[in-house]
Amino acid sequence: MCPGCKHHLRFDEAASVAKRAAQTLVPLRVQGTVRHPPDGSPWEYTVVLSIHNDRGVEIGRHVVGVGAMHANDERSFTLSVEAVPRDDLKPGRGRRDH
C-alpha cells in the first residue's frame, strides 16, 4: 500500500505497462507549427494547458513550457489526451473535479 495515497501498488510493471498500452485511447490530438517572421523582433512564448469541466469551470492550469524565438525560428507543438479504461476504480473514490 502506498503511504501517501493509501492505494495498492502494482509490482508487475511489465504486465501493467503492456496492458495499459493496449487499452490506451487517444480521443484528442492537435498538432501545430509556429514560424517567427524573418524581419520581426524576438518573441517569448509560453505553452499553457488549461482543463475545464463540463460546466466550463477551469479545474487545472499548467505551464508546460517557455522559450524564445528569433527570426525564422520554428517550433512544433503536439497536444494529445490519452484515456485508459479503468474497471478497478470504485465510484466516489479519489479526487473529484467540480
Characterise this structure.
With 98 residues, the protein is mainly β. The protein has a domain at 25-83. It has one helix at 13-23; strands at residues 25-35, 43-52, 58-69, 74-83. The strands form 2 sheets. It has a two-stranded antiparallel sheet with strand order 1-4. A hairpin with a 5-residue loop joins β2 (43-52) and β3. The two termini are 28 Å apart. The model has no long low-confidence stretch (mean pLDDT 83).
Layout of strands and helices, then pairs:
Blueprint: H1 13-23, E1 25-35, E2 43-52, E3 58-69, E4 74-83
Antiparallel strand pairs: 1-4, 2-3
Instruction: Please report the distance between the alpha carbons of the first and last residues.
Output: 28 Å
Mean pLDDT: 83
Helix content: 10-25%
SSE ordering: HEEEE
What's the total helix number? 1
Radius of gyration: 20 Å
Give the gist of this structure.
With 98 residues, the chain is mostly beta strands. 11% of the residues lie in helices and 44% in strands.
Which descriptors apply to this entry?
two-stranded antiparallel ribbon, 98 residues, 4 strands, mainly beta
